[in-house]
Specification:
This is Zinc ribbon domain-containing protein. It comes from Massilia violaceinigra. By secondary structure, the protein is mainly alpha-helical. The chain has helices at residues 27-37, 43-56.
Length: 62
């Protein structure tokens, strides 16, 4: 399910590059945890978008 406030980005600006400031869902924290283990920027945003597409497609997360 996509958050109406951040559209699944974790950012209230609804931008994948935005500040992780959405307090209405768990996506900001989930994304912060994800980014901590991901490779260097800017590829982390691409990985995050792929992860979100996978979740939307019903694939289980790690």
């Amino acid at each position: 399910m996509t958050c109406a406030h951040c559209n699944g980005t974790g950012s209230l600006s609804k931008d994948a590059y935005g500040y992780l400031d959405c307090a209405y869902c768990d996506v900001a924290q989930e994304r912060a945890d994800f980014e901590a283990d991901a490779p260097e920027q800017p590829t982390v945003v691409d990985l995050w978008l792929a992860y979100q597409r996978g979740k939307a497609g019903g694939r289980p997360s790690a």
